[in-house]
Amino acid sequence: MTETSTITVRGVARRYGATAAVQDAGLDLRAGRITCLLGPSGSGKSTLLRLIAGLEPVDAGEIRAGDQVLSAPGRTVPPEARDVGLVFQDYALFPHLSVGDNVGFGLRGLPAAERKARVLKALTDVRLNDRAKSWPHSLSGGEQQRVALARTLVREPHTVLLDEPFSGLDAHLKSEVREGLLETLKAAGAAVLLVTHDAGEALMMADDLVLMDGGRVIQSGDPQECWARPASTAAARLLGEVNRLPAHVAGGVARTPLGQVPAPGLPDGPAALLIRPQYLRPGGEGLETTIETTRFGGHFSEVGARLGDDRVHLHVPGASARPGDVVRIRADLSKATVVPD
Ligand code: ADP
Fold this sequence. Notes:
Helices cover 23% and strands 40% of the residues. The chain is α+β, with helices and mostly antiparallel strands.
């Protein structure tokens, strides 16, 4: 366990009948950092979140907070004893309670003055301090979402788990609420786990990124590093469009249609070269390609082109490219990665 970890998850598994929802999964949640868990629908994200929350038992592995074992086979510390706050997409506020009373609901055991002070602080954190006396139905969707967050923050949990909390909001509100909410959480020093299936959201929001597929963590680390240096084709595709070209490794170097690329640690034999379309550009002395398709995308066009037996996608400035044009392209091979076939 690293010293700054608030929660560590190691080798965790959860099965439903024949479905292995989560297998051998591991991650660390750290104070003041946002960890985004990204994967396609059904990849096990929500199950892993529920395991961390203590809503379900683990079949294998361990979840710890410092020296305390929260989950292990046969042992599940209940959610209310975990110091973990949960925010789901369908945040249900009590319609018959004011905003302030919704937020203070979980603090009923405290003296009134302390409760009031903490509710005000939590509402200030989500910039709704002037709405304590309002009724939930008088608030916009984004404001209601912030009340739900305040209700979690007011208990000052060391860990906050958010399951697709923005997917019910329209695009405009989404970015507004997202920014404010995550800033607030970071400032509060909470360790945050944000589950999402939106690659753009994960790349923008994450301090630490965890990619899941088929119940497994397939890569984790710095978002830029995951984007530029995916560990596998599946990891690369989760984060956006990528070119995949055949490669042949011999002695730690891969021969590819774009040139030679270092492939340290890979065994001799067939492999694959991954490179994002952004790193293929039209250029003077480059490789000859024939444009097959173009899609105008604003300041660049997404272009499909034939390179020998292979097809590549690249970004060409403006709308200058036309099907049938022969263009030379250059690859920034420092941004390419060779992965097992
Ligand atoms: P995600 O959040 O990435 O969409 P989930 O964790 O919800 O994925 O689901 C992972 C897999 O486990 C899916 O195949 C899903 O159908 C299955 N699953 C999840 N929850 C249950 C459950 N309570 N009972 C049976 N199968 C479940």
